[in-house]
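Subject: Sanity check before I submit

Could someone independently write out the structure tokens for this chain? I want to compare against mine line by line before I put it in a report. The sequence has 153 residues.
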Amino acid sequence: MEPVYPKAPLEEPKTVTGQVHEQPQVEQQRLLPPTYDQATAAPAQTSGPGVTATGTAIPAVTTGPSTTQHTVIVVPGSAYGPEPQDVQCPYCHNYTRTRVSYRPNSRTHLIALLLCLFQLWCCVCLPYCISSCMNTNHYCGMCDQYLGTYLRK
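---
Independent answer below. Compare away.
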């Protein structure tokens, strides 16, 4: 089987002998793109018109007041409910379902104390086992950061 590609280039490279065009240094600098530092730096402020090497006037460059844009993120106080929810985590920015854990609150302890006072010893642990008697803490399912609490009323 013969090779598909030729062994030698199809066209010979053209070389120009004797003529070398060199551009002046000023024109070369004008053709080059600016460096990163030049592109990100603030523009220079001048007080009056300047003059180029050829004697033509350059209009003055003035900068107006800079406008900055502020982004305000408002996090609602009670956005979380008693069940896991699908949210965008403000820490890792992933869309995920929250992981919940239940923590006893003062109402849980009060119910257990009342059960103890009524001498229902076998039922004292029930408020600590029932999730509807405790607060619900929500955590990110990806980065495990605390997101908020649903307070039982």
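---
OP: Matches mine. For the report I'm noting this point. The first helix runs from residue 25 to 31.
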